[in-house]
Inverse folding.
């Protein structure tokens, strides 16, 4: 429910941005801060505060993050300023980094081995995918009925309060935490030198760069499409989100049939195929293949995330989750920005940005092939099985 709740707000931004452009007479760059500021805050929180759940325990860290998020959401009701809203999005991003790293660490705590961890992570991220569908739908429904988009944040704040109370009453063991130990932000930074933490983080960054191209720039790419599949183009983003969410629940079955490394090779190859064919043959293919890439993308993030975390002892799960979250958020910010800059440099057509996204997808495919053949993390994962 935590993952579903914050996905409702972060993935609804694309629907909110056109409204704030009209409301505050903003440029696209200014309005884009509703996405970039949140991602920046999540990145900073992941790298600077990701160790908290290892230091003070999972339960208090989750409650702390949820309370900060709830307060940020409720303050939308009294605000009427663009800069005020941006400040609230920054604080909500910090909160997401706090409770998400603790939640990710908790998933590792309650699973017995890396294989079970991966299956559980895909299920949890499946609920994130559901939230990514619900959020835009709620905002669209609010606007269609004459209500403000701000009610989405009030609803999310209420859910946070309920989740805080549920977490407070839950009986949990904090024996895994490192209370009073050497866990610190300095130790989190030191993890960047670890080849497993850095390797998985970089692969995740490549994936996020490719994925962000879809939900940030695909609507722009298809905006002027008037071919035979024009009606499908209207629902392309919805199709993508539905396939991504469904694929994550399907992953639990897939992982019981084939190895995770083989799955990553096949799926990353599918993403690269969708992008490459779309760029070579044009929008008639892109309107089908880019949304379909959501099915191939579904398993990538939660699987790589869980494997990266499983390379470490449970007492360090929150710290490494924070590091991975840092790379995730940075990629979610710089990926779309680099695509926009390259498109502008080449004359303004969004297809040029997707050429760059295709490069991201190709590099990810090469990395996953290498992982499948050489299995560099196999012994490390066995160490904590």
């Amino acid at each position: 429910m935590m993952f579903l709740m914050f996905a409702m707000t972060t993935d609804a931004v694309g629907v909110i941005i056109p409204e704030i452009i009209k409301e505050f007479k903003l440029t696209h760059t200014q309005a884009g801060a509703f996405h970039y500021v949140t991602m920046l805050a999540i990145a900073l929180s992941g790298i600077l505060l990701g160790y908290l759940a290892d230091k003070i325990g999972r339960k208090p860290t989750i409650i702390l993050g949820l309370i900060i998020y709830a307060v940020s959401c409720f303050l939308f009701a009294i605000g009427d300023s663009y800069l005020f809203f941006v400040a609230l999005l920054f604080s909500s991003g910090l909160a997401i980094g706090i409770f998400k790293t603790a939640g990710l660490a908790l998933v590792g705590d309650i699973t017995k081995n890396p294989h079970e961890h991966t299956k559980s992570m895909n299920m949890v991220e499946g609920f994130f995918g559901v939230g990514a569908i619900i959020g835009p739908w709620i905002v669209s429904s609010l606007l269609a009925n004459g209500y403000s988009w701000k009610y989405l944040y009030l609803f999310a704040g209420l859910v946070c309060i309920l989740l805080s109370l549920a977490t407070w009453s839950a009986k949990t063991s904090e024996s895994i935490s490192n209370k009073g130990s050497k866990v610190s932000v300095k130790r989190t930074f030191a993890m960047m030198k670890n080849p497993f933490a850095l390797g998985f983080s970089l692969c995740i960054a490549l994936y996020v760069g490719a994925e962000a191209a879809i939900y940030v720039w695909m609507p722009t790419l298809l905006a002027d499409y008037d071919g035979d599949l024009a009606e499908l183009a209207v629902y392309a983003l919805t199709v993508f989100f539905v396939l991504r969410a469904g694929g994550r629940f399907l992953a639990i079955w897939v992982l019981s049939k084939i190895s995770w490394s083989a799955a990553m090779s096949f799926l990353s190859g599918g993403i690269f195929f969708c992008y490459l064919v779309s760029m070579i043959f044009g929008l008639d293919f892109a309107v089908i293949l880019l949304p379909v890439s959501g099915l191939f993308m579904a398993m990538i993030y939660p699987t790589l995330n869980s494997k990266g975390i499983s390379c470490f002892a449970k007492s360090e799960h929150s710290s490494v989750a924070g590091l991975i979250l840092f790379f995730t958020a940075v990629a979610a910010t710089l990926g779309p920005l680099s695509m926009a800059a390259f498109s502008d440099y080449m004359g303004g057509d969004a297809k040029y940005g997707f050429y760059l996204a295709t490069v991201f997808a190709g590099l990810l495919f090469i990395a996953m092939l290498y992982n499948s053949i050489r299995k560099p993390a196999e012994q490390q994962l066995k160490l904590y099985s």
Summary: The chain has a mean pLDDT of 91. The first helix runs from residue 2 to 10. The radius of gyration is 20 Å.
